[in-house]
Amino acid sequence: MTAALSQVDRLAAIEEIKIVKARYFRGVDGKDEALLREVFADDVELDYRGAATDPVTGFNASADATEEIQRGGDHCARLVANSLTGVVSVHHASVPEIEIIDASHARGIWPMVDRLLFPQGSAMREMIGYGHYRETYIKERGQWRILSMKLTRLRMDFVPAAERSSTEV
Amino acid sequence: MTAALSQVDRLAAIEEIKIVKARYFRGVDGKDEALLREVFADDVELDYRGAATDPVTGFNASADATEEIQRGGDHCARLVANSLTGVVSVHHASVPEIEIIDASHARGIWPMVDRLLFPQGSAMREMIGYGHYRETYIKERGQWRILSMKLTRLRMDFVPAAERSSTEV
Amino acid sequence: MTAALSQVDRLAAIEEIKIVKARYFRGVDGKDEALLREVFADDVELDYRGAATDPVTGFNASADATEEIQRGGDHCARLVANSLTGVVSVHHASVPEIEIIDASHARGIWPMVDRLLFPQGSAMREMIGYGHYRETYIKERGQWRILSMKLTRLRMDFVPAAERSSTEV
């Protein structure tokens, strides 16, 4: 069914997957649809359900596309690239746990923080979220790509526009 | 005394140790005693002395278990899992320096930020700390585990409860 | 012209470069000129132009050495080590994209956040910046070193001294 991987091929796969995730973050923060399309598998599934709700307080910041699982490389690349129009986003990851299952399948857990700075005139100045991505990967057309992504939250902070800093008028 | 490691075995050991640290963080933030027990060596030593004091101002936030070195896998797993009851914690690492000494010994330096959100009714809303872990690792029962951990601080921020955000009632 | 690298040598080079960057950050935050000198190539070029300006608001926090490209290992190590006197800095990276070009050349992209806490009496309490380093590396005297570094920004936050927290008197 699947080819056994050598130790070095396994390590190379882990590094490739880390770079795929780095490019995903760069695609999101750069609103780069072409780059996002490359990192997503054709049958990618993005599950952001509940990812705009603070698990500590139950406060929900949004009721948009995050309510349903999103499917398909073209659709998801377009959705993610356009979902943050006017928003300055910064996504940072901490150290991941990546497990290579076989030569073309893998899974991983990524701790993350995302910071969304909303445009002038928004009721909310900023959202800062902490959580984990649980992902699967597939090697498709010679490259590792994200096949599924589920985002869970530890905590979310919402900063009202009234707290906008004096240097940001 | 010790077997020389091949280049590929050395790289595999580095990646395994990164995953051990990732699981440590996931164990801390998930209050998962079983997971913490796995990442700790039987003779682990945790040195959090001074880790609740801001080196910039000298402000000390706590005078608890961090005053003594903690020893032993069972004790430390239980202590860490229970030390943050009611607290939402987020620990993130930056890029580490891991050095493999031989087939079963290694050391590493990890930059980190930890964010502790205290429960309603606490005098302090939040503590955000920046610093480094200096660690040693041992391969025990076929797995790399944390043998010692010393946490030092660059800076700590303490946020009084009065600054609790309006979205966090 | 250049020797082809084996897969394992390529992976080892990537890990070495990550450690070089980790040491760069530790050198900056520790104001350690000797450590910085080691991670810089003799002909290093640091391009921090525009790195003190928030691209969101256009606010510019500083008009100092960041106005010109800085050149040379000795000069840059001294400059970086001394540029943050009295400032508590914390630099954290997220997951990088490192590409090995040949046995002695590489390039990389690093997402980062830097936090500068200014001393008492400064008009500004704190600067928090988000952006990317785009770097090249060269293997010189047997070690990978940073040959060029260009810092771009996604966002910068400036916190006036008036917002200094009550615990930091």
Model description:
Three copies of one chain form a homotrimer. Chain A is built from three helices and seven strands; from the N terminus they run H-H-E-E-H-E-E-E-E-E. Chain A is α+β, with helices and mostly antiparallel strands. The first copy, chain A, has a single domain, classed as Nuclear Transport Factor 2, Chain: A (Roll). In chain A, strands 1, 2, 3, 4, 5, 6 and 7 form a seven-stranded mixed sheet that branches. In chain A, helix 1 runs antiparallel to helix 2 (33-39) and helix 2 (33-39) packs across helix 3. The mean pLDDT of chain A is 91. Chains in contact: A-B, A-C, B-C. Chain A binds chain C through residues 8-9, 11-12, 15, 18-19, 21-23, 25-26, 29, 88-94, 96, 115, 117, 165-169, and chain C through 7-8, 10-11, 14, 54, 56-57, 59, 92, 94-98, 109, 111, 113, 130, 132, 154-155, 157-160, 162-163.
List the helices and strands and how they pair.
The structure is a homotrimer of 169-residue chains.
Chain A: H1 7-29, H2 33-39, E1 40-47, E2 70-71, H3 73-83, E3 88-93, E4 97-102, E5 105-117, E6 124-140, E7 143-160
Keywords:
homotrimer; 169 residues; alpha+beta; Nuclear Transport Factor 2, Chain: A; 3 helices; 7 strands
